[in-house]
């Protein structure tokens, strides 16, 4: 079963769902399916329950951080300079907005094929980090989604037990984000000495006050 | 035995004088295989609720690997599941080879299979030892198992220079070839191994106390095993036919004839027996591989060690590690470091069902169930 047939079957069965195939440039050739967050739950349920797809085994759940990037392009424009038309170079800057991405690697234990990487993206990196949890469909996502919540800060709506899993409960930041600033003193958490606390505050303001 | 801390009494159940007791089992509990903690709520001896707590050994391996070159994190993968470093190396090498499209020479594939299956032998041998130790047969079975494991670790030392942190694989091959006489010594160890298995099985498999403690305990159904992503011997004990050596046929596993043992009940006893049966199948593979190993180069001659920059793209590579499905997910942006590096830890995901297995049973059964899951905390916490 190719990715195109899976895509057309999904689009035929789930009204209003738009999918996109993300092409992979590496020799592995594992292209993936990009799903919008609104339809992700329905798509996942269909992938699991449809008898000809039968993706019953969600192996791996990964978070990926894509911060906003500034792309500087040099373009040549024709302009009038002192009454003479000249071709000059101009620097055009475009910023692509950042987002967090969650990748589910699906396999079929029954039909013995895979992987199908399923990607879901958040709206942005600060307030719109909500995604539907797929734990009700695949239990294997339970700890892995908790880990992504802990290390990347994606909030999974509908997760039965969304707590930090690897870092301690009082921890503030999300260490796997690309712009994470390491604390300059790890001792601040258990021992609250004044000067250490002050340094910790400085650190947190440096980290963007998250 | 118990290193529980500060039991807290909760509200009494209506109509009885009994109380629920919340106990923190671990992180220094000897049966937790490291620094794993479970918050257990007990009604008398029975487990009502069990919440695993992780992170005591968390080093953020993934972040470290993203700030390191591709080859630079190869020695670090040894420290994930520190009992089977060679299969960790293999999983990582396989993912990078998929990402960059590297071919592995014939001899290197054979070396990988031989060392990988030896790793499986020593992991399963020590696991059954640990499991019996956890269930209270103190000392002897563990020492028997460790005596065999020691012989294999000696082989690893002669081959790679290290007993546990082998750092053996490279992208497109292996680091060093076998020293003179190594193959004969390895053959001798493999030939003597069935004697240990027979002796061990005679001692313990039909042991009445062991059967009483393990049969019908911690039953994992086939459906839950698939849905919860359980892999490896634990899934096969529940009857899921999911050996990645057979499914993906990675490396050269399609050349060997071996069977995949499957359990019928999915209880602790089945999971325990699964290891015995798998060791016997591994011995078959080892005998074939040691007989057939061809001469030749051990690393792809076109492979550049320095300045290794795969094309932008991504790859998910997985192997059948002794614990289950060990996967590596890599995203390259064309730089010398991986943009995203993710380990799919079989130990952590196999623990998803721990609460389902334990609820309603006694505290002593929790220890046996946890032992049969086979976790290593270096991999759970990363």
Explain this structure:
- The complex is a heterodimer of chains A (210) and B (382).
- With 210 residues, chain A is of the alpha/beta class.
- Chain A has a domain at 3-65 and 99-165: Beta Polymerase, domain 2 (2-Layer Sandwich).
- In chain A, 21% of the residues lie in helices and 33% in strands.
- A 5-stranded mixed beta sheet of chain A has the order 1-2-7-6-3, with helices on one face. A two-stranded antiparallel sheet of chain A has the order 4-5. In chain A, strands 8-9 form a two-stranded parallel ribbon.
- The relative contact order of chain A is 0.13.
- With 382 residues, chain B is an alpha+beta fold.
- Chain B has 2 domains: 5-53, no CATH class; 61-381, Cytochrome-c3 Hydrogenase, chain B (Orthogonal Bundle), CATH 1.10.645.
- In chain B, 45% of the residues lie in helices and 15% in strands.
- Chain B contains 15 helices and 9 strands.
- Chain B has helices spanning 61-66, 74-77, 85-100, 106-134, 140-160, 182-204, 208-214, 222-227, 233-237, 244-247, 268-292, 346-350, 354-358, 363-373, 377-381, and strands at 5-12, 19-25, 37-43, 46-53, 169-170, 173-174, 313-321, 324-332, 340-344.
- In chain B, the strands form 3 sheets. A 4-stranded antiparallel beta sheet of chain B has the order 1-2-3-4.
- In chain B, β1 and β2 form a beta hairpin.
- The longest helix of chain B is centred in the N-terminal third of the chain and has 29 residues, at 106-134.
- Mean pLDDT of chain B is 86; it is low at 1-7.
- The chains are: A alpha/beta (210), B alpha+beta (382).
Sheet-strand content of chain A, in percent, reads 25-35%
What's the gyration radius of chain A in Å? 22 Å
The end-to-end distance of chain A, rounded to whole angstroms, is 44 Å
Q: Write out the CATH superfamily name of the domain at 3-65 and 99-165 in chain A.
A: NADH:ubiquinone oxidoreductase Nqo5 subunit
Just name the CATH architecture of the largest domain in chain B: Orthogonal Bundle
Helix content of chain A: 10-25%
CATH fold label of the domain at 3-65 and 99-165 in chain A: Beta Polymerase, domain 2
Oligomeric state of shown chains: heterodimer
The secondary-structure element order of chain A is HEEHEEEEEEHEH
Average pLDDT of chain B works out at 86
Q: How would a crystallographer describe the biggest sheet of chain A?
A: 5 strands, mixed
């Amino acid at each position: 079963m190719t990715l195109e047939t899976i895509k057309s079957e999904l689009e035929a069965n789930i009204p209003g769902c738009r999918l996109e195939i993300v092409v992979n440039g590496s020799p592995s050739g594992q292209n993936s399916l990009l799903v919008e967050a609104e339809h992700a739950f329905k798509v996942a349920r269909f992938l699991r329950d449809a008898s000809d797809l039968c993706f019953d085994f969600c192996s791996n759940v990964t978070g990926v951080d894509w911060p906003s990037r500034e792309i500087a392009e040099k373009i040549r424009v024709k302009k009038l300079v002192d009454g003479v038309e000249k071709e000059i170079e101009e620097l055009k800057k475009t910023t692509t907005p950042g987002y967090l991405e969650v990748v589910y690697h699906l396999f079929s234990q029954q039909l013995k094929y895979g992987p199908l990487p399923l990607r879901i993206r958040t709206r942005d990196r600060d307030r719109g980090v909500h995604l539907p949890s797929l734990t009700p469909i695949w239990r294997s996502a339970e700890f892995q989604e908790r880990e992504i919540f802990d290390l990347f800060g994606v909030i999974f709506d509908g997760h039965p037990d969304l707590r930090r899993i690897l870092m301690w409960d009082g921890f503030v930041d999300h260490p796997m984000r690309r712009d994470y600033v390491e604390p300059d003193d790890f001792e601040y958490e258990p021992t609250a000495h004044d000067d250490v606390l002050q340094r910790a505050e400085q650190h947190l303001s440096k980290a963007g006050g998250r | 035995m118990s290193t529980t801390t500060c039991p807290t009494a909760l509200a009494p159940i209506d109509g009885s004088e009994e109380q629920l007791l919340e106990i923190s089992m671990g992180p220094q509990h000897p049966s937790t295989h490291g620094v794993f903690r479970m918050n257990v709520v007990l009604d008398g001896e029975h487990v009502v609720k069990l919440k695993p707590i992780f992170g005591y050994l968390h080093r953020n391996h993934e972040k470290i690997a993203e700030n390191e070159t591709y080859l630079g994190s190869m020695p670090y993968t040894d420290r994930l599941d520190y009992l089977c470093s060679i299969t960790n190396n293999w999983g990582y090498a396989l993912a990078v080879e998929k990402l960059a499209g590297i071919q592995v020479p014939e001899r290197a594939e054979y070396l990988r299979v031989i060392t990988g299956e030896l790793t499986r032998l020593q992991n399963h041998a020590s696991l059954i030892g640990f499991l019996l130790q956890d269930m209270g047969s103190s000392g002897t079975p563990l020492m028997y198992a460790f005596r065999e494991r020691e012989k294999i670790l000696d082989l690893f030392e002669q081959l790679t220079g290290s007993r546990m942190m082998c750092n053996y694989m490279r992208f497109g091959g292996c680091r060093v070839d076998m020293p003179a006489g190594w193959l004969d010594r390895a053959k001798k160890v493999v030939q003597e191994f069935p004697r240990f298995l027979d002796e061990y099985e005679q001692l313990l498999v039909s042991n009445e106390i062991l059967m009483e403690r393990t049969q019908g305990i911690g039953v994992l159904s086939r459906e839950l095993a698939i849905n919860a992503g359980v892999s490896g011997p634990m899934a096969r004990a529940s009857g899921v036919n999911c050996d990645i050596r057979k499914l993906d046929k990675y490396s050269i596993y399609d050349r060997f004839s071996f069977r995949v043992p499957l359990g019928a009940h999915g209880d602790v006893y089945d999971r325990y027996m699964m290891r015995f049966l798998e060791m016997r199948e591994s011995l078959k593979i080892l005998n074939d591989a040691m007989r057939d190993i061809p001469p030749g180069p051990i690393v792809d001659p076109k492979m550049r060690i320095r300045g290794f920059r795969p094309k932008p793209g991504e790859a998910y590579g997985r192997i059948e590690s002794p614990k289950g499905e060990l996967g590596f997910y890599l995203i390259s942006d064309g730089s010398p470091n991986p943009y995203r590096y993710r380990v799919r830890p079989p130990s952590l995901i196999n623990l998803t069902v721990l609460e389902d297995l334990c609820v309603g049973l006694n505290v002593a059964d929790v220890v046996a169930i946890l032992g049969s899951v086979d976790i290593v905390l270096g991999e759970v916490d990363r």
